[in-house]
Hints:
The protein is built from 13 helices and twelve strands. By secondary structure, the protein is an alpha/beta fold. The chain folds into three domains: about 55 residues, 434 Repressor (Amino-terminal Domain); about 130 residues, Response regulator (Rossmann fold, 3-Layer(aba) Sandwich), CATH 3.40.50.2300; about 130 residues, Response regulator (Rossmann fold, 3-Layer(aba) Sandwich). A six-stranded parallel beta sheet has the order 2-1-3-4-5-11, sandwiched between helices. It has a six-stranded mixed beta sheet with strand order 7-6-8-9-10-12, sandwiched between helices. It is elongated and about 85 Å long. It comes from Streptomyces bingchenggensis (strain BCW-1). It holds the Pfam family LacI.
Amino acid sequence: MHRTRPTLESVALHAGVSRATVSRVVNGSTRVGEDAREAVQRAIRELGYVPNQAARSLVTQRTDSFALVLPEEPGRVFSDDQFFPGVVRGVSQRLEEADKQLVLMMARSPASRDRIERFALARHVDGVMVASVHGADPLPASLARMGIPVVSNERLLGPVSLPYVGVDNTGGAAAAVRHLVRSGRTRIATVAGPQDMVAGIDRLAGYRAALDEARLPAAVAVGDFTQESGVAATRELLREEPGFDAVFAASDLMAVGVLRALRQAGRRVPDDVAVVGFDDIETARYTDPPLTTVRQPIAHIGRRLAHQLLRLASGEPIEPSLVLPTELVLRESA
């Protein structure tokens, strides 16, 4: 026999309250007494009532969906760079705990940014997290001007200020270089990250600050956080500054490239050249030799991003800037 789907009215009758009270409980209103709330929730369980999400969205103006926007090529996001999967894992775990849906979007071209703006303006999501922003990307500020809650990983370059969750890039890089100085290295080069990203800029600043403390000269080549750029930058250093005895690479993937280029050049690690990376991706434990690196809490960054956005979208107070600590992890490469 076909069973009629429970309605708000049947829940109200079962709980002994008004239909309006049931509606307020279902939509998360705080304007309901505790006894009435418990009666409604008990009736919902006993009747097996399932709210109509489309109708609920019309009432609450919420979709229970949040977007994570990555201004990167899909090939980069889903390559062997474990930063993005780690952030996505952390974001999705926190949203799942809150019974919310994750929408993953790429934004590497003006056309894709326009599409995301239209999608957000149509209120298909309740808020947006933006990670891996390059330069003065107009998308985060544009979304915020539309009244959409936006949280970024790392602070934004330029005059725009939005809530962000970052890590101590400067302090982490400085700790890595100080370790190399303490171990007796005197010609410390760096493969810096892209200088249109906060992580690249701040890690280079930390490198320079630690060298200035030690009154040692700098030798800089710039990569783009990929393994291939680490190889190319190391070859540049071997041509321009062949006497270096250590390298701080601003990402583990670039450090993997550094190790490969040094091996091809006949330089032994760590005997001839010590190498330190940044991130502590899983690969760092399995390089030859295992990589000394600066650990950043990648999955936790994602969790805090999602947590901050959930609070922001609900009108709750948040910290405008949250900087998570890093930790130097010592292995055989340095």
